[in-house]
Amino acid sequence: MGKYINVNLDNLSDAMAQIDTYRNERDALIVRMTSHVHSLPSSWQGQDCTVYISEWDSLLETDGVLERTDRQLSAYHDVLETAYDAYKKAQKESVQKAESITSGTFC
Q: Where are the domains of the chain?
């Protein structure tokens, strides 16, 4: 008996869209939070405020937690996209082979 993999391309596409939506919402929230954090000195002065802002900014640096998380989300999206493209191509080729059998041109 042959082995096969059943892949639902719609589910892969939905997962990619969910990642995109999450990243967009997250980016908007980070922008709002950054604006809020940088406005804190208007109501909170002193070293604690400065340290807090510095800590927040460190999350946004190239190797900060938020940026590393974003890179991981992007990498996961890329994996899903690669799988989507590969399985879509495989399904198309399978259909073409099946059609060639019925037309008598199978090699």
A: 63-97
- Give residue for tokens 């950054």: 34
Taking CB atoms within 8 Å and a gap of at least 24, the contacts of 32-38 are 34/60
List the structure tokens of 31. Answer: 């922008």
For residue 8, is pLDDT > 70?
yes
- Give the contacts of 38 (CB within 8 A, at least 6 positions apart): 53
Report residue 9: phi and psi, to 5°.
-65, -30
- Tell me: the pLDDT tens digits for 52-107? 999 999 999 989 999 999 999 999 999 999 999 999 999 899 888 888 887 765 55
Q: What are the residues whose beta carbons fall under 8 Å from the beta carbon of 80, sequence distance 6 or more?
A: 12, 15, 16, 19
Element (H, E) at 92: helix 65-103
